[in-house]
Amino acid sequence: MDRTMLRIGAMNMMTHGVENPFIEYRDSFSDQNSDREKYTLILANPPFKGSLDYDTVSADLLKICKTKKTELFKRAEVQDNDIPGILQRFKSREQEKERKRTEQSFMVDKKEIVENEYDLSINKYKEIEYVPVEYPPTEEIMADIYQPEKEIKKNLDELSEMLKKNNKFVSAIQNSLEKTQQLFNNLMQKYFG
User: Fold this and answer.
1) How many alpha carbons lie under 13 Å from residue 100 in its C-beta half-sphere?
2) How many other CB atoms sit within 10 Å of the CB of residue 143?
3) How far apart are CA 29 and CA 55, in angstroms?
4) For 73, which DSSP code?
5) For 21, 54, 61, 169, which has the most beta carbons within 10 A of its beta carbon?
6) Residue 178: how many CB atoms within 10 A of its CB?
7) Is the pLDDT of residue 101 over 70?
8) 3-state SS assignment for residue 121
9) Is there a cis peptide before residue 84, judged by omega within 30 degrees of 0?
10) Which neighbouring-strand residues pair with 69?
11) pLDDT tens digits for 166-185?
């Protein structure tokens, strides 16, 4: 829906090796969208929050969920049935008190929810563990970057030497052919006038 996102998407695809990305500017929720049963996987970046023009939403989607909120359409299919686990944890809520806020589910005191004006967004309460990423030293990265360039230069130097030798060989053949032609011309002149 946003042309800036089209440019960012195309740039992202190119930086990941897709040389000619095909990205279309259109509303995937619209009744004008002709793509049906075409894709097995759809990747999307959060946030999914947004509103739709209810009158242009595809009738197929409205059968699933009558809403103007885009985030309700973008639910991921659950591969493993986690409902039994949810029910089990609900039945033994006392044990839930020990769960960390980094886990799939956890308890939050009512007082904290009230302080947050009853905002039940999970990100308001969930703790995210950041795992530091270690990269090799800059010199090592640069060496890896320059290595293919060194190999290309080496190969070009070898090709250049081969061409020089080839040119000398071609020149020697050409001289030999000229001498042979000259001998032939002399013989023809001598014997046939």
Assistant:
1) 5
2) 12
3) 11
4) T
5) 61
6) 10
7) yes
8) coil
9) no
10) 51
11) 888 888 888 888 888 888 88
Please tell me the number of Cα atoms within 13 Å of 111 on its side-chain side: 0
Is there a contact between 45 and 71 (Cβ–Cβ < 8 Å)? no
- Spell 69-87 as b/e; 16+ CB within 10 A means b: ebeebbeeeeeeeeeeeee
Lookup result for tokens 């904290």: 112
Residue 103 near residue 127, CB atoms below 8 Å: no
CB 53 within 8 A of CB 67: no
Report whether 31 contacts 57 (CB < 8 A).
Answer: yes
126 phi and psi, to 5 degrees? -75, 140
- Residue 193: what residue type? G
**Taking Cα atoms as reference points, which of 30, 28, 24 lies closest to residue 6?**
24
Which two three-digit tokens encode residue 12? 């992202």
Angstrom distances, CA of residue 59 to CA of 64, 74, 121: 9, 16, 29
pLDDT mean across residues, the chain = 81
Place of tokens 């939403």: 57
Question: What pLDDT band is residue 138 in, cutting at 50, 70 and 90?
Answer: very high
Tokens read off for 106: 């956890």
Place of tokens 């039945």: 91
Q: Comparing C-alpha atoms, which of 47, 72, 77 is closest to residue 61?
A: 72
